[in-house]
C-alpha cells in the first residue's frame, strides 16, 4: 500500500528540544531530521510529514486541533496505553458522542498547547453529546485548555500600493 499522497503540516514552536521530546514520544519514533531551529518527522502511519520551526513569536494558539483516526479500537487502546505510560495524555473520552459520531479518543497537548486527538470512529450519531453543545472554547473536538494564554492581537499595517507585489508577479 502506498503512503502517498502524504499530508504535510508545519508548525512554529517556542522550544524545539521540548517539542522533539514530546513528538518523539507521541509518534513513537525519533525525528527524521533535526537541524538548528528545525525538526521533521516522516510518518508512514498516519501518512504524514510534519515539521517544526523554532520561532516563538509566530506560535499560534487556539487555531483548533490536529489529530488522526486509527483503524481499530485495539489500535486506539494500544496507542492510549503507550501515551499513558509516557505521561502525555491530557484527556480520555471513551464512548463519547462528538461531532455527531460515537468515538473512543484521547488527547495529548504539546509544549506549545497544540492539542492532538487520536480517535477510533464507531458509528455516526444523530445527536451531539450535550457536553459539546456549549458555545465556549471547550466545545466539541477541543478539550478545555488548562490555561489560555492571551496573546496580543497583531494589527495589519497599512501598506501603500507602490510597496506591494502585483498578483502573479512571483515576488511574494
TrEMBL record:
Tell me where in this chain the VOC domain is found. 5-121
Q: Which domain of life is it from?
A: Bacteria
Q: According to its UniProt record, what is one Pfam family this protein matches?
A: Glyoxalase
SUPFAM superfamilies per UniProt:
Glyoxalase/Bleomycin resistance protein/Dihydroxybiphenyl dioxygenase
Q: Which InterPro entries match?
A: ArsI/CadI-like, Cadmium-induced_rsp, Glyas_Bleomycin-R_OHBP_Dase, Glyas_Fos-R_dOase_dom, VOC_core
List the NCBIfam families.
ArsI_CadI_VOC
Q: Which protein is depicted?
A: ArsI/CadI family heavy metal resistance metalloenzyme
Biological source species: Aquirufa novilacunae
